[in-house]
């Protein structure tokens, strides 16, 4: 379990209430996940916090219900751009960011249409296979930046596929919340 300040804990509790309320109208997480929201989604997202330096600018791909981008913004105070194409999810993200005091901007676009100042860090969770994530991330990331991707049991296959098209440096850290999951930190990546 990731330890956060009392202030952050209060914001995360408020976020949980908001998401639970909004989830009745729009599908942000699976209804069966609501009971396990803290462990399954929030704690999973908080795993990124130790890898985020103070002040680093983050872009989160396919933010959905705010995982991991909005949670990282709440926990770190860092500026985060959330890219999400679903307008209803964007409405939730803006409301949750405002109510939780997160430094967030929401970009209601498809990832491949996003034009942004390059970020220090790109994050994503349960979004797409690694080769696709790298394709989306490269134009949005500073040359010396890195990606933090929460991935599942197919990670070894995805790494093999990605290495056929990409040169990259990566570290893989076991997930604290999913026995099959890993946190991938990828840097210095470019097409082969």
From TrEMBL:
Which keywords, in A-to-Z order, does the entry hold?
Answer: Cytoplasm, Methyltransferase, rRNA processing, S-adenosyl-L-methionine, Transferase
Highest taxon above the source species: Bacteria
Where in the cell is the protein located?
Answer: Cytoplasm
CDD domains xref list: AdoMet_MTases
Example GO BP: methylation
Query: What are the protein's GO molecular function terms?
Result: methyltransferase activity
Q: Which residues bind S-adenosyl-L-methionine?
A: 62, 67, 111-112, 125
What Pfam families does the record tag this protein with? GidB (PF02527)
Q: What is its EC number?
A: 2.1.1.170
Quote the catalytic activity from the record: guanosine(527) in 16S rRNA + S-adenosyl-L-methionine = N(7)-methylguanosine(527) in 16S rRNA + S-adenosyl-L-homocysteine
Sorted alphabetically, which InterPro entries does this protein's record hold?
rRNA_ssu_MeTfrase_G, SAM-dependent_MTases_sf
Q: What NCBIfam families does the record point to?
A: rsmG_gidB (TIGR00138)
Membership in a protein family: Belongs to the methyltransferase superfamily. RNA methyltransferase RsmG family.
Q: What function does the entry list? A: Specifically methylates the N7 position of guanine in position 527 of 16S rRNA.
State what protein this is by name.
Ribosomal RNA small subunit methyltransferase G
**Could you tell me which species this protein originates from?**
Bombella pollinis
Source species taxonomy = Bacteria, Pseudomonadati, Pseudomonadota, Alphaproteobacteria, Acetobacterales
Gene symbol here is: rsmG
């Amino acid at each position: 379990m990731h330890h956060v300040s009392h202030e952050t804990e209060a914001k995360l509790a408020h976020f949980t209430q908001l998401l639970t309320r909004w989830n009745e109208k729009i599908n942000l997480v699976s209804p069966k996940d609501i009971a396990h929201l803290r462990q399954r989604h929030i704690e999973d997202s908080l795993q990124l916090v130790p890898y985020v330096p103070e002040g680093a600018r983050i872009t989160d791909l396919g933010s959905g219900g705010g995982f991991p981008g909005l949670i990282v913004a709440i926990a770190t105070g860092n500026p985060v751009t959330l890219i999400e194409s679903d307008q209803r999810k964007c409405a939730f993200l803006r409301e949750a960011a405002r109510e939780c005091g997160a430094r967030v901007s929401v970009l209601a676009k498809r990832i491949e249409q996003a034009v942004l100042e390059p970020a220090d860090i790109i994050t994503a969770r349960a979004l797409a296979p690694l080769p696709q994530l790298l394709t989306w991330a490269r134009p949005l990331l500073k040359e010396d930046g890195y990606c933090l991707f929460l991935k599942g049991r197919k990670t070894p296959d995805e790494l093999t596929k990605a290495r056929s098209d990409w040169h990259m440096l990566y570290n893989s850290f076991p997930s604290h919340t999913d026995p099959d999951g890993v946190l991938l930190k990828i840097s210095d990546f470019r097409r082969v």
